[in-house]
Specification:
The protein has about 90 residues and is of the alpha+beta class. It contains three helices and three strands. The longest helix has 10 residues, at about 75-85.
Length: about 90
């Protein structure tokens, strides 16, 4: 089952379970704006492809809630700046 992390690892914006988000196969989670700014649409952590995170039906969140574990990697902002300066 997907963890459904609650925020963007890059900019720390909230990403509730019904929000548009991008994930890699390791479930690194990014908002659409940060994902689009990453080089080649790849995860800066593992190099994996970023794809749309599926949304979990509201009624399923009762028995299978989204994760509260927040991952924030401020060094991601530096990777975005490097990518945009190329």
């Amino acid at each position: 089952m997907l963890e459904m992390r609650p925020g963007c690892e890059c900019c720390d914006i909230d990403l509730p379970p019904d929000a548009d988000a991008r994930i890699c196969s390791f479930e690194c989670t990014f908002c659409p704006a940060c994902a689009e700014a990453l080089p080649d649409g790849r995860c800066p952590n593992c190099g994996g492809e970023l794809t749309a995170r599926p949304k979990r039906a509201a009624e399923k969140l009762i028995t299978a809630p989204a994760s509260a574990r927040r991952v924030f990697a401020p060094d991601c902002q530096g990777k975005l700046r490097l990518a945009s300066s190329r």
